[in-house]
């Protein structure tokens, strides 16, 4: 079988790292702060960014929309998006299909999920510094700060706290106990008359101008391929 072309990007980044989400979140934060609530409580506490669980949680949160942001549909859709992003990372380590190498689909040969996230030209906004430490781009932490402020405002936890806690909890549970939920794409055998391997191996912002190229095959809406505003991709069963 011929080798696949090397992928250039795992995730276009971050969809929610620009002016649009800033305006929406600032407006929402202002509204919450003007409700008269004075008994502020920390409903969300994320793990430190230099911990594996904190770093993974930041990716899951960064890649999915929150209320008021473009592509937000519902809490469950954003939670599903977080799970599918995580399963792509897991598939790139533990479910490399026949005919492909891990390096071809993940730009790494590592079984460390942090290496999969920070592999060159994969998750934009997530990389390693000169000392080899996993780091996030400033815009990632900036958005997270806004989300945490909203989540910790008011007298009781709401949707923002729910999503942030879910992302952090999912990261912790995965690192402690591995994969415990089903990959919704695992059973795929055909997409648009193309035989595929099943499982997800890439995601990108759901826009027609984005595609990872090579042997990646976009999973259509009819097969649930766009949770959380991302388009997910499987692979051709027979590499070109």
Uncertain parts:
1-9, 12-40
Number of strands: 7
The gyration radius over C-alpha positions equals 18 Å
Q: Reading side by side through the largest sheet, how are the strands ordered? A: 5-7-6
Listing every helix as H and every strand as E from the N terminus to the C terminus, the arrangement reads: HHHHHEEHHEEEEE
The first-to-last residue Cα distance is 8 Å
- The percent of residues in helical segments reads 25-40%
Backbone shape: globular
Number of helices: 7
Mean pLDDT: 85
Main sheet attributes: strand count, strand direction, barrel closure: 3 strands, antiparallel
Percentage of β-strand residues: 5-15%
Structural class: alpha+beta
Structure characterization notes:
It is built from seven helices and seven strands. It is an alpha+beta fold. The chain has a domain of 163 residues. A hairpin with a 2-residue loop joins strand 3 and strand 4. The chain is globular and about 55 Å long. The N terminus is likely disordered.
């Amino acid at each position: 079988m011929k080798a696949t072309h090397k992928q250039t990007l795992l995730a276009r980044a971050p969809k929610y790292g620009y002016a649009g989400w800033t305006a929406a979140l600032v407006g929402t934060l202002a509204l919450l702060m003007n409700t008269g609530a004075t008994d502020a409580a920390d409903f969300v506490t994320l793990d430190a960014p230099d911990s594996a669980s904190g770093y993974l949680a930041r990716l899951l949160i960064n890649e999915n929309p929150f209320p008021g942001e473009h592509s937000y549909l519902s809490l469950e859709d954003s939670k599903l998006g977080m799970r599918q992003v995580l399963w792509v990372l897991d598939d790139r380590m533990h479910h490399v299909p026949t005919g492909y190498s891990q390096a071809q689909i993940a730009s790494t040969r590592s079984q460390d999920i942090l290496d999969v996230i920070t592999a060159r030209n994969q998750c934009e906004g997530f990389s390693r510094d000169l000392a080899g430490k996993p780091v996030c781009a400033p815009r990632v932490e900036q958005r997270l700060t806004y989300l945490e402020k909203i989540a910790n405002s008011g007298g009781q936890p709401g949707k923002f706290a729910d999503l942030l806690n879910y992302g952090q909890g999912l990261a912790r549970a995965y690192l402690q106990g591995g994969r415990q939920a089903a990959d919704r794409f695992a059973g795929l055998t055909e997409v648009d008359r193309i035989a595929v391997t099943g499982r997800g191996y890439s995601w990108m912002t759901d826009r027609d101008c984005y595609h990872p190229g090579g042997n990646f095959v976009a999973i259509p809406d009819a097969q649930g391929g766009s949770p959380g505003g991302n388009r997910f991709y499987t692979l051709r069963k027979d590499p070109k």
